[in-house]
Amino acid sequence: MQGSRASSQGEALPHRRRELSVAPNPRFQAGSPILQRLPAEIRSKIYYEVFGGEILHLVQLPKRLGHVRCRAPSSTDPLRTCMPDTRGPASAREIKTSSLDLPLLQSCRQVYVEAISILYACNVLDLDDPSSLLYLSQTIRPQRLAAVKRLQLKWDFLIPPLVIPETKDPKWFPRDDQTWESFWRVIATQMPGLVQLTLVIYTEHRKLAWRLDEGWVRPLLQVRGLKNFRLEQLFKFDLELYPSTEFDSFHQQLHDIMCATV
């Protein structure tokens, strides 16, 4: 993908969270003699096995943003049933298992320099709260966010954004209009490396309007340059995809717009 996605900037959030990755500690050695004896190709394969090829659920913990390695890494589990509900602050006890071995990045400067890009470029970042991406964008270096290639969001439309006037009230955070708009602005302006985006709409309303001029749709239209955009609709009670000619046509229109070259 080439070029930027848009020119506007997102709104700053009131609190900063610790970044997903960690910078190398200057007390540690600059390089490992053992690593230096391995060809770069072999080192890259090792890094991928340690840091890549996963679906990482981003979760908001007290004073920081954390992650959980998906225990059911499949697109057939869009509701994140493999982990606790994190639409409220999750506890460290609930998610203390199945995380990546990020401290390894601090063990050696050479490991950090060679492996850090794999963490962002070779995993799927999975969210159930759009504000998690806003926090992430404020706590990692811009080049790390720009390296992310795959992103998926499960969005709870029980209170849809940009549908009822009350969603302008901050009490609806993170389901307020500003958060929804800022989420898509970050994707459009700060994630030029993104190639695959999945949006799972989880709702109890079967009558959502599938039109490009709907308020909740407009923020998506600023995104360009994807290779694949996938839209799914699930329902609170039957949890099954609901086939609809109108939905299929809408999905294709969105895909064509968001996958258009910049």
Task: Describe it.
- It is a single chain.
- Strand 4 (150-156), helix 7 (177-190) and strand 5 form a beta-alpha-beta unit.
- Helices cover 29% and strands 15% of the residues.
- Helix 2 (40-51) packs across helix 4 (109-121) and helix 5 (130-139) packs across helix 7.
- The relative contact order is 0.16.
- The chain is built from eight helices and six strands; from the N terminus they run H-H-E-E-H-H-E-H-H-E-H-E-E-H.
- A six-stranded mixed sheet has the order 2-1-3-4-5-6, covered by helices on one side.
- Residues 1-19 and 89-93 have low confidence and may be disordered.
- It has helices at 33-36, 40-51, 92-95, 109-121, 130-139, 142-147, 177-190, 245-258, and strands at residues 55-61, 64-69, 124-127, 150-156, 196-203, 228-235.
- It has 262 residues and is α/β, with parallel strands linked by helices.
